[in-house]
Amino acid sequence: MSLDERIITQAILEEYFEKFKSSLDLDVAIIGGGPSGLTAARLLAADGFNVALFERKLSLGGGMWGGGMTWNIIVVQEESVHLLTDVGVPVKRYKDNYFTADAVAATTTLASAACLAGAKVFNCMSVEDVVLREEDGIKRVTGIVINSSPVEMAGLHVDPVVLASKYLIEATGHAVEVLHTLVRKNDVRLNTPSGGIEGEQSMWAEVAETNTVKNTQEIFPGLYVAGMAANASYGSYRMGPIFGGMLLSGEKVAADIAAKLRG
Ligand code: 48H
To answer: Which of 38, 67, 176, 186 has the smallest count of CB within 10 Å of its CB?
Structure first.
């Protein structure tokens, strides 16, 4: 059978822009495709919400590929094991509350599960800002401002485009990039003790893991923080290559937003 290169191009064009068009009015926009963002994306999409995830890099998975220091095994604790086994990641008990999984199997499977659940993934896409609205004196984020990562990396002066979303999840990891932009550009107060971004503290795995879930919350009207971004926002510790808190944070933010969306 003959193959026409123009039809290959046309297929990509039409399918991609169909996906993009169906993301103009999202229920949830997830910024960052690490373990917390991927877990939230899978659960919200499986619940039937219109969900898209935006990841700067070509590959999904954030900081989970390399386990600890490139030794590509991750550790998770018992209460989070279901978030791996539910999607088919083999998990082994190492001892007591310490379970291990292959980092590559975990990363690729979480990414695949999010896509197959119906989350629309836009990789190679950077979120550079948010849309802000004020009503009755209350400011709220109502969308994301996105640009192509190659445009961003090349430093080209090309304007971004905008998608609306009822809720945003900042799951960008240690840097909490979007929240920093929100605070830098606008006169806003966050739902944190100081009203600003508290900043991440040094290593204390046990406290950090508990706090990752506790700190997963709406930090500004319309904007939730999840995963490492939650700890960095609320001033908690880092935890090293244990990923249960990230998975549980994704599960919590999905449940909280689903409850809000259902009213
Ligand atoms: C689009 C963006 C943008 C942007 C960043 O870092 P991640 O893996 O995030 P988490 O919170 O799900 O997981 C954290 C975990 O990997 C980790 O770092 C741990 C446990 N550290 C412990 C320690 O002690 O060090 O993924 C975030 C993703 C990345 O893929 C970024 O490329 C992406 O977000 N991202 N995508 N627009 N503006 N900023």
So the answer is: 186
